[in-house]
Design a protein that fits this description.
With 142 residues, the protein is α/β, with parallel strands linked by helices. 40% of the residues lie in helices and 18% in strands. Keywords: Transferase.
């Protein structure tokens, strides 16, 4: 079983989870940690550490979904992903969006976070589209 930890700047993570609850329902094995102006980097480090360590004892792996490559949430998450002594494998995917978050529901029962991270990255590419009018040909046979 996997856990998905959403880590973002500001209230984005909690807003994504709240929106998912509205359109999908409760996402199992999903939680969030946010970097806030009030708490700053040190508070985020503490919150992230507490959350990821609490999760680690309950799952086979963790996929952290971040908002911005090289931002603080991403950098902190990578310290756990690249720590060979962390109790479970951790993968970090950046560029979280709403469709990608909803996709995680299909992967909770998986056990390989690396494979799931790769799949989410590839599938996320299909979630960003440019709107174009739909051309409808009218049938003269009413």
């Amino acid at each position: 079983m996997l856990h998905f930890l959403i880590a973002t700047h500001g209230p984005l993570a909690s807003a994504l989870i709240s929106s998912a609850k509205m359109v999908f329902g409760e996402l199992q094995n999903t939680s969030c940690v946010s970097l806030t102006e009030e708490g700053g980097i040190e508070q985020f480090k503490q919150d992230f550490n507490t959350e990821i360590r609490d999760i680690a004892g309950q799952v086979e792996g963790i996929v952290v979904l971040c908002d911005l490559e090289c931002g603080t949430p991403y950098n902190i998450a990578c310290t756990y992903a690249f720590d060979g002594s962390f109790p479970v494998p951790v993968e970090v995917v950046t560029g979280i969006n709403f469709p990608t978050l909803l996709m995680t529901a299909d992967f909770v029962e998986e056990s390989d976070p690396a494979s799931v991270a790769q799949t989410l990255q590839q599938e996320a590419l299909n979630t960003i589209v440019v709107a174009k009018p739909v051309s409808v040909e009218q049938d003269d046979d009413f």
